[in-house]
Amino acid sequence: MKTTPQAPTAVAPRRRRRWRYVAGLLVLAVLLVVGGRLAWSWVNPFGEQTVDRSQPVLLESIHNLSRFEAATGNFQVVVDLEKDANFLPDAIKGTRTLFVGAGNVDAYVDFSGLAKDALTVSKDRTQVTLRIPRAQLEKPNLDNSRSYVFAQQRGLLDRVQDFLSSSPGDQRELYVLAEKKISEAAVSSDLRARADTNTKAMLEGLLRSLGFTKVSVKFVDEA
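RESULT FIELD:
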């Protein structure tokens, strides 16, 4: 018995064409989304553009330094500043601000004021005695990238005043208070003692490298 050959089915080509259409639609959708976003970013009326119109930096002066930066301390303080009105509730008039102040304080030894007899060398140049001043503390240097307002509560009148003010949210008082507290903390810490120790060790190593076998580094307030 003979069987008549059947024509090859067209299902497979149809499926391939269908997947091509789907892939084409997906590519078209992606292009439309990307193009739409680019167009919107170009014509967005609410977009912001930053233009730096700052003037060139002016070098005012240069000072020679004769000091050794011996140590630095990193500090952080939370300033809790509250201002209340005498006869009004806090919801009407009053502010409370929590400010995180972070920065460092440098301790240095100034060699510019050394006395003429600060350095004493023996006749055979094997022994040396050096008298230096104690370490001092530099002003606190607040780090703006790590200092910020953590929380703030304001009364109704304060909100209206800030809204109408040309410079709302002035934080200079917070920075000054944070610097003061960090400075007090640096004074009560062992930062200056660490700087004295580091300076003494540095000078002893330097003088020994110059050939002195017996080195004595003393501070001016020592007998």
